[in-house]
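Hi P.,

Sorry for the delay on this. The queue was packed all week, but I finally got your sequence through. Input first:
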Amino acid sequence: MTFFNSEMVRAEMTEISQLQEEVYGNVFKFHSMDNQEKIKHVNLLKNLLEKQRVLYTRMSLSDDPEAQEMKNKIIESAKMMGLQDDMNVSQMFGNMEKLLESLMEELDKS
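Then the structure:
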């Protein structure tokens, strides 16, 4: 069985896709959301980020050529969006997580 034919992987990818749609559907409304809506949105982002991190890790550990190809595409996309050569995708996930935690702290204060 290939990596992407696994029921678990397919379910994770479906869930990631649904979360992305929900997050992207509200991203431009963020500035007009009340505090509770913003907290909910940040929690969705955190959930999405964690699921993406897990899937990326699974791809990294897989020897399936399709998984490795997808992993490489993710790396290239991240580089096009500003990932520096001296940083890896795992560090990028960590930085994004710290950013979301910081945002959540600010929302909790208000």
